[in-house]
Design a protein that fits this description.
mainly beta, Maltoporin, Chain A, 22-stranded antiparallel barrel, five-stranded mixed sheet, 6 helices, 45 strands, iron transport, zinc transport, zinc, siderophore uptake transmembrane transporter activity, receptor
């Protein structure tokens, strides 16, 4: 069994651990002494817990009984507990849990200590406090920047140090300290992550990982895909509604199906937890920024088996282009129910309305990007209304088998209208036409898996056997129409524009995606091994209502994953892994549907978590290849062939640390050597467009003893090529962010006043691609006042 003290992913208790297991075994310490955890207020005299791995059962019992429980991970490793039921006291409950294990629990002045049974019952074991980082849940709130565990890479609550893949975690504390609203901005300090490739475009998150776009194909919420229909219907996510954001680098099709080869971004929702603080906050800033938000929750019964939490955001604001709205209304209630010691259910819902720009591009006059916007404030907009409802369910049948099922249903309505220029400008007057894209979508995403924990000789297995299924039905109207002209020297942004009536597309589509997967996580002494395989099926049916025709297409693929990691005593963990991905492509060639692109990655790396610290350092080298890329047919220029190939080779360095209660740090450096290795388009051997070779980021937050604190950061992105032939280049740039905050004390304890600035120096930077140029977001300043309790 695991040598850490983390609980099964969905059976995590809803209260701050009363027996935080110290994860020295995570660093391979075989003979660590008894480990102590902080003592909270006891909640109950005894509790019922299911049987299972002894370390997990002890941790769960300590949570529910409200006791301090200390033990050496080596003492309990590999032992199985029958659990407890009907105990009348804490001592009786511990006796039931330790029955048949050869261990006993002894009460001391510091709590209960688990030790081997000895003939001398009068022997008193003196507990020794060891300074070490506690293990955490991958779903519960965290107090700082450091996250010891993550769930995205394995679909289990596993220490990052024991995972043979590169993972970055952005916690809610990082989001709050930098005061960001978008997921794109939240992950901007993570290694290997490029954001804002098309400048300011608030319609969706622009996130590239290791040189490959993940915006449309790798958008996940709570481990379930947020579907994308190929147009503009993309579920939006407010960063404030998230407990954390996990960025998994490299192919991940074995667990998640069709996905970008660069990796994926998994957004983890805030959910009920007694570890969560309540908070209300108001904000004001430049660009007419006005925002209110709250995060409240607690117990609905005396024992804390039923918990609730509600997160809300109301924002009325603009971007630095005055006519571009940044408006959001969001409400996300959730409820958790510990039905019995072996069964839990969490309900998650969200309703959101948002309105922003449909086309935020500014007019490009030759080699100069102007401040002129070509749209109309009343007509141009991306308006979306979405709601989702789902659940996460887990039942442990016994100490070996547990069933987990997650499901989410959603509806999304999108109106996307904008004005486009055409022809030449005469006497300063621009002719325009109107474009409208109107979409409706409903979707279902589910994931059902059996988790089996067992041993075969010296091998300890955590075997996932799963089936996931996604279904979404969408309809799209795409139309154009006339629009009034505009004087670029004296623009009128409030002219009447009719809804476009010239239909260019009217289609309905139904997409079904399903996959079965098998993944085994193996522990052998200090080795952590993993192997996985998956089979996927994708079916798409499209109805063209203009031509009254139908089309169907199907794709399938088998993907594999392997990983190996070794835990040293000193906290070092070298690893190696291999992973694959596939991603279906729209369109056809000579009447035949395009094949999916395929990704393959080899990665080696080194992780280091110094014993006794809340810090993690990661270095990784990767070689990532995407095959079946479309390129020109050398025999017929009107056709394409899928013989193209693109490679990314790189180095990533990342550090995340809570150096003290007052000082927090995140830093990263990325080097990527991208190359088009096969192409008939004349760009073989050149860099893919919009792929920087160097990126670096650093953020520090420090709080002085008397309440005043400061945060400061910098983000560097090197130059990129703007076309496939590498003849146009956009310059490199560095952006600075900063914040200052003051925490009140005394009668105002819990009140924080803060001022945050993004792009502090108001750096103007431009990125050009294929003749279009995009300007980055200008400086934003937000003042906030919050109260937490």
């Amino acid at each position: 069994m695991r040598s850490t003290c983390s609980l099964p992913s969905r059976l995590q208790p809803r209260k701050l651990s009363t027996a935080i297991c110290i994860a020295l075994a995570l660093c391979g310490v075989a003979t660590s002494p008894a480990l102590l955890a902080a003592e909270p207020t006891p909640r109950a005299a005894a509790a019922d817990v299911p049987g299972g791995a002894l370390d997990q059962t002890l941790s769960l019992y300590a949570e529910r009984a409200g006791i301090t429980l200390s033990y050496s991970p080596e003492t309990v490793r590999g032992r199985v507990s029958p659990g407890s039921a009907g105990a009348q006291s804490v001592e009786e409950g511990l006796s039931q849990i330790l029955g048949g294990t050869g261990l006993v629990a002894e009460k001391t002045a510091s709590g209960y200590v688990v030790r081997p049974l000895r003939a001398d019952d009068s022997y008193q074991l003196q507990p020794v406090t060891v300074e070490a980082a506690p293990t955490q849940s991958a779903f519960a709130p965290l107090p700082g920047y450091f996250a010891s565990n993550a769930s995205t890479a394995t679909k289990t609550d596993l220490p990052i140090l024991q995972t043979a893949q590169s993972i970055s975690v952005v916690t809610a504390a990082q989001i709050a300290d930098r005061k960001v609203d978008r997921v794109e901005d939240a992950v901007a300090y993570s290694a290997g992550v490029r954001t804002g490739g098309s400048g300011l475009d608030p319609r969706f998150d622009q996130i590239n990982i290791r040189g490959f776009d993940t915006t449309m194909s790798a958008d996940f919420l709570d481990g379930l895909r947020q579907p994308y229909n190929g147009w503009l219907s993309i579920y939006g996510t407010e960063a404030y509604a998230l407990e954390r954001i996990e960025v998994l680098k490299g192919p991940a099709s074995v667990l998640y199906g069709q996905i970008s080869p660069g990796g994926m971004v998994n957004r983890v929702s805030k959910r009920p937890s007694l570890q969560a603080k309540n908070q209300v906050e108001i904000q004001a800033g430049n660009h007419d920024h006005r925002q209110g938000q709250f995060d409240v929750g607690g117990k609905l019964d005396e024992t804390g088996d039923v918990l609730f939490r509600t997160v809300g955001v109301y924002r009325d604001a603009h971007y630095d282009i005055e006519q571009l709205n940044n408006d959001v209304r969001m409400l996300a209630p959730s409820l958790s129910w510990q039905i019995d010691p072996a069964t839990s259910l969490t309900l998650l819902a969200q309703y959101q309305e948002r309105e922003t720009a449909a086309s935020p591009m500014l007019y490009h006059d030759g080699n100069r990007l102007t401040d002129f916007w070509q749209g109309d404030e009343y007509f141009d907009k991306l308006g979306q209304r979405q709601w989702t409802f789902g659940y996460e369910f887990e039942h442990a049948f016994n100490d070996t088998f547990s069933l987990q099922q997650n499901l989410r249903y959603g509806q999304l309505d999108t109106t996307n209208q904008y004005l486009q220029p055409y022809g030449t400008i005469t006497n300063g007057v621009m002719e325009r036409y109107a474009v409208g894209v109107y979409e409706d979508m409903e979707s279902v995403s589910s994931d059902t898996r059996l988790v089996s924990r067992f041993a075969t000789g010296e091998l300890q297995h955590t075997l996932l056997t799963g089936w996931d299924y996604a279904w979404f039905d969408s309809s799209v109207l795409y139309a154009t129409g006339p629009a009034p002209s505009i004087d670029i020297n004296a623009p009128d942004y409030h002219q009447p524009v009719s809804r476009p009536g010239n239909l260019l597309a009217d289609q309905d589509s139904l997409t079904q995606r399903s996959g079965i997967y098998l993944q085994d996580q193996i522990e052998l002494d200090r080795w952590r091994l993993s192997a996985g395989v998956r089979r996927d099926w994708v079916h798409v049916r499209t109805s063209n209502n203009l031509s009254d025709s139908n089309s169907k297409r199907s794709d399938s693929a088998t993907t594999y994953q392997l990983g190996a990691l070794y835990l040293f005593d000193n906290g070092l963990a070298p690893y190696a892994s291999y992973a694959e991905s596939f991603l279906p492509q729209s369109g056809s060639n000579a009447g035949r549907p395009l094949k999916p692109t395929e990704g393959k990655q080899y990665e080696i790396g080194l992780k280091y978590q110094p014993p006794g610290t809340s810090a993690l350092f990661t270095a990784s080298l990767y070689h990532l290849t995407q095959e079946n890329v479309s390129t020109r047919d050398p025999l017929n220029s009107l056709n394409t062939v899928q013989t193209g190939e693109q490679v990314s080779r790189g180095l990533e360095l990342e550090a995340v640390a809570d150096l003290s209660e007052r000082l927090h740090l995140t830093a990263s450096y990325s080097y990527n050597d991208p190359e088009v290795t096969k192409s008939n388009d004349g760009n073989q051997g050149k860099d893919p467009k919009d792929t920087p070779r160097h990126m670096a980021a650093l953020w520090l937050d420090y709080k002085l003893p008397f309440g005043l604190g400061f945060g400061a950061g910098a983000r560097y992105t090197s130059s990129v090529y703007g076309n496939n032939m590498n003849t146009v280049k956009s310059e490199d740039y560095t952006l600075f962010d900063a914040g200052v905050h003051y925490d009140f004390a005394g009668d105002l304890d819990g009140v924080r006043l803060a001022v945050n600035a993004r792009n502090l120096t108001d750096k103007q930077y431009v990125n050009c691609q294929d003749g279009y140029c995009y300007r980055g977001e200008a400086r934003s300043v937000i003042t906030s006042l919050s109260y937490s309790w």
